[in-house]
Amino acid sequence: MSDKPYKSSESAVSKVAEPSVAYRTSPFPVEEEELPNLDWNPNHPVHATQEEWWDHIHEIEAGLFIPWEEAQREFEEWKAEYLKKKGYSVNLAR
Question: FRET pair for 5, CA 20 to 30 Å: which of 16, 31, 57, 58?
């Protein structure tokens, strides 16, 4: 076995400095009332009763509703227009 050391010496190892914290502060002054609502944190679970969850679901269901056929038709129209802009030939017959 050789006497050659396998580890690099401290002087040969390039060290990376700690990341800058510049991303945490904005270069532009922001008024306190302009900040978004930060009450919700995706890393903390939300606890609610079953009744509160059902109320939330019913509130969503009461919102804007588009039947599947209409949504599919609107998507196909959008896709045809998009592909036409990109220069592809569009065949709408299915």
Answer: 16
Domain that holds residue 80: 49-88
Q: What is the pLDDT of residues 32-63, one digit of tens each?
A: 666 666 677 778 887 889 999 999 999 988 88
Specify the residue for token string 């302009």.
34
Which residue type does 74 have? Answer: E
The CA-atom distances, in angstroms, between 50 and each of 47, 53, 57 are 10, 5, 11
What's the domain count of the chain?
1
Is residue 69, in this structure, part of any structural domain at all? yes
How far is it, in rounded angstroms, from Cα 94 to Cα 91?
8
Q: Could you identify the residue written with the tokens 């019913």?
A: 58
Q: What angle do CA 53, 57, 59 make, to 5 degrees?
A: 115
In a domain, 26, yes or no: no
The separation between CA 29 and the C-alpha centre of its own chain, rounded to angstroms, equals: 25
pTM: 0.34
